[in-house]
Amino acid sequence: MKKVLIKKFEALFEKMQDKGHETMTMMIIPHGESNILSLQMSKFTIVFLIIFIAVVILASALSAYLQEGIRGDLNKFYDAKETLYHESELYTSRYQDLTIVKEKVNGFVEELFQNSDLEQNFEIHFQSKSEIKATAQSEMEHEGKLFTQEMARLAQKQDVGFSLDSIQKKLLAEFTQLRLKAKFSFHKQVVEYRRIHLELTQAIKALRVFQNLVVERIKVQNGLPFYLPIVGGHFTSMFGYRQAPDQLFKTEFHTGIDIASKVGTAIFATANGKVISSGLAGGYGLRVVLEHRFGFQTVYAHMNRLGVSLGANVVKGQVIGEVGKTGRTTGPHLHYELKVDSKFIDPKPYMFGY
Q1: Domain presence at residue 71
Q2: Helix H or strand E segment including 223
Q3: Full-model pTM
Q4: Which domain holds residue 269?
């Protein structure tokens, strides 16, 4: 049976050879029947040419298809490159803006502390650029290590069949594509952003410290009697020895300052404090006594009307009464006294800040 098949195959092959060696003649006859061209080719040659032309056409079509695909990929690549370029420009401009803001903030903070006369009590310390850069580098290296560990944990979860959300899958895919195993390093621009962040954070902390100091200083200032008790008027008697206003040839020690003004002129508290006396007080007439911080007391006498009651808390600049001429007085005026630890002192330097 096998021999019969072989013989049949051989016969078929010989027949194909005979057919293939047969020639075909192509004639090109121009007008006028002169110079007739004839071309003889075997059937094998014709089949080969047909196959060759088909392969060339197919290869050209495939090449055009691949070129179109490559062109599309190149366009995507160029678009991605253009996007990356614009993002890089954007981050660079923002980096420059942040640098300018950081320099302004640092300069502003340093100027505040220099002009605030707080150097004796508080000294702000700014870390040097090298110290902050080292801190930023150390922080980013630590975060890179934590990120690598997190990616390893996600890879293990994925290997045992746990489902990851889309963000985790994307991060893991990008991390795997970069072929990072033991270490992840942030780009130098990211480190620079962290450095600027640390410098701005340092400046913000300094501003908060300064704010607290200013708030405390305001509290102290408001607790001290650096304020005019009335607006306008004129001094009629100063602190110290003087001639008694109602007795000739007699001197007395004047424990405050008299400021003449018309009846009804507003009288202001010269510091935050508490009312420890409010009412008639002999020769003082209608009087208000305020107790302040640091052992200070202020006295406002000869009032026409009281504006606060005993036990009330008042703030600097609050109206506590009106100028009058009650008690021992020769005309409408405010008698203003200042005490420190129950001792009378001259209020004028406190009123005018010298």
Answers
A1: yes
A2: helix 188-223
A3: 0.52
A4: 234-352
